[in-house]
Amino acid sequence: MARRESLSEIRAANPDLGLSGNVISVAFNIPYSFTHHRGQDWDLRPRRGQSALFDSFAYLSSDSTPWNHTLVAWTGEIESAHDSASDFPAQAPEQPTKNSSQSTGSSTGSASSRNALSAPIPVDANSRLPTPPPVDGLWLPKEDQQKLEHALSHSKTIRTVPVWLSDEADDTDEGIMLKDQSRWRRYAHHDLYTLFHYKQNEPTDGRKERIQWADYYRMNQKFANKIIEIYKPGDIVVVHDFYLLLLPSMLRQRNHNMYISFFFHSPFPSSEFLRCLPRRKEILEGVLGANLIGFQSYSYSRHFLSCCTRILGFPSDTLGIDAYGSRVQVGVFPIGIDATKVEKHAWAKSVDEKYYALKKMYAGKKIIVGRDRLDSVRGVAQKLQAFERFLELYPEWREKVVLIQVTSPTSVEADRDGDETKIATRVNELVMKINGEYGSLGFSPVQHYPQYLNQDEYFALLRAGDIGLITSVRDGMNTTSLEYIVCQKDGSGPLILSEFSGTAGSLGDAIHINPWDLSGVAEKINCALTMPDAERKEMQQHLYKHVTTHNVQTWITKFIRKVYGVLGESNPANATPLLDRADMLSNYRSAEKRLLMFDYDGTLTPIVREPSAAIPSERVIQSLRRLAKDPKNSVWIISGRDQDFLKQHLGHISELGFSAEHGSFMRDPGSEEWINLAEKFDMGWQAEVMEVFQKYTDKVSGSFIERKRCALTWHYRLADPEQGIHMARECHKELESSVANKWDIEVMPGKANVEVRPTFINKGEIAKRLIARYHNPGGEPTELDPNPGRVEFALCMGDDFTDEDMFRSLNGATGEVLHADHVFTVTVGASTKVTLAKWHLLEPEDVIECVALLAGDQDASGRKLIGEVSLAALSTVEGRIPVSETSNL
């Protein structure tokens, strides 16, 4: 085992991150189920399922890691001892807690069976599954809440902070009323779980879904509130699974510099399936608030990347997504199990007794083991059909092989809404059919047990198996496959594993099958039964080594290491600060001469699918008009648009100056004449570029060519996003290797376009011209500069890499020509965006707010039209809140 890194070593290797040493894990459920006894101690029982995830929490909380760990999770549906005392024993017989491990030993004693071969795993006939709490509500006094919170926060195993979910009106100082507790999981189960597992619900009028979505959104908000309460700068937040897909962005909105990661334990569907989800954009945008997103397998990560490109339009590659100006990294981290704990439990004396009983009961027969939840994605019906096909094709194995299939009730509410009954009926029909056709009075080839197993029975069954058979049609992580491998340490029973299982990619030595190919599965069963001992042992050795070395401890260690590795690559210390609007406004007002330069697309207007639809709003037009009329101001629009577009939409503001086609043309304020700066340049290159662009236009449906006077642009914004991005790279590569080698031109990848222009023409050259024109201390008034003197305020705003040329020119002029405090270069995008600008704004709406702030934007009554952020800046500069804001209070 690798040496454990100390926290001081991690901090030394990542000095700029300011790591606190705290890890906050966020999961939907606490690892315990709770029963409430009013005024008494709470009953805590280990929660079924997600054992690997809960083991990772226990490991992070132990002394084996350098981290201080806290779990934030929902309590789950709390049961009331008052309402169901007879149904809820203090300790569930099948899962003992640390304080009552002796209580389960008698659960097998009262079992009854019709014959020796029909019940190898006895069941307590008196045990009942818990019934859900009443819908009308469960009242928890505040002191009982605090008692549970104290117990969880002082747990020696996993320090836990519970999230209480209820309507705001039901959460009072006296206590909390929990009503219809299962509603918090309904959207995740009904819409997300089904879709992520390639199932679709019948269309409805949407009213129920709207309510469920509202609960899902509120639930994520309540998680965010709880995390913000305990968060400290430098904490690492790790969010788990599809119940909390909105949480990363909610946290990012509260704290831009928070270290957030997300791990999908479920499968992730292709874009063709995800686009069927009405809230698809909200779901994707929610999880993109994370710095790192992890998946079980490469195919799931590939689907996610494709969805972000096809649905949101963000460019992506195999390592991540470029979203909102920042990089969200994506990785594959197959989860493991606590193999040491499993092995210790599997070879306990209590398990030995049950194991030998099973082997004796089925002496002379091969045992195929199946253990699945009874939901629609576990493939139980496919397994039974394949086993039936096996008995049909290989009659020599009849009465020599038994399939022991254990099915536990589903935990997915969507499958409990009638589907579970249908699946159970189908499974029972198949069992009766197989046993009726291939069984006898003394033997049934299928032993089906629809029940939970206690731990000893479960491990005894896995040890006794000669074949482990998993036929899931879609799942994330399948712990049964990993636990089976550990339990076969001595037995070497082959594992037959569905290729649709999330663990298939990491268990390459298992026998992979397609559960829909019944004859193929039957053939693999026969191969496993007839496999030579040496081959079986070699297969088992490889699988055992993998499972024991790639365990849950290794998984969570690698994942967190990757988190702070990603953070180091995008160090927030290098982030561009948010524009200080108060500082900008103060400098603007004190300046006697000002130069303002604005990009157009993505700055004054948002990026849209159809370029011709990007027209300026009336607010933008009015604000620009006010700024341009001020004799102290020189205002320029420096755009990649052609002259006709700029003239049509902004040309009526005569005081504005324009630069079109990235600096190819200029029109001075007050003039109607366009100056062609590329007039003397040979444009012979355009014919060759047009030929290349036309070839790619023919290949990519929805793409088109925009021909400007000095530049050519190939647009693919209306094309299939993935195809467009791929073909744009090919087009760029072809132009660079051909036309660009013969002509003095520049090939520029833009936002859903590729543009070619002369090399000497760019926005930076325009910025240099304007600085030289307007910064002339001691000069005489001219027609182009009637207000000579120093430029005491320079503002430049843009959103893409073509605007970096302007930022570079202004930075170059800072110091020798312009005073550093008087220059404001602002990029539009995330703070983590790589840029030469000194400041950033998130989106065009923020730019418009800033332009309106400088212009003193007003409505017809004289009331200033500014947002809350700009109001704060204005109040800071003026030292008071404007009267227009308080007159109506």
UniProtKB/TrEMBL annotation:
Which CDD domains did the record assign? GT20_TPS, HAD_TPP
Q: Where is this region: Disordered?
A: 82-140
| UniProt record, GO biological process | cellular response to heat; fungal-type cell wall organization; trehalose biosynthetic process
Q: What domain of life?
A: Eukaryota
Q: Supply the InterPro entries for this chain.
A: Glyco_trans_20, HAD-like_sf, HAD-SF_hydro_IIB, HAD_sf, Trehalose_PPase
| Cellular-component GO terms for this entry | alpha,alpha-trehalose-phosphate synthase complex (UDP-forming); cytosol
| Compositional bias per record (Low complexity), positions renumbered to this chain | 99-118
GO molecular function ontology, one term from the record:
alpha,alpha-trehalose-phosphate synthase (UDP-forming) activity
Q: Per UniProt, what is one Pfam family of this protein?
A: Glyco_transf_20
Which family, according to UniProt?
In the C-terminal section; belongs to the trehalose phosphatase family.
What protein does this entry describe? Probable trehalose-6-phosphate phosphatase
Report the source organism. Claviceps purpurea (strain 20.1) (Ergot fungus)
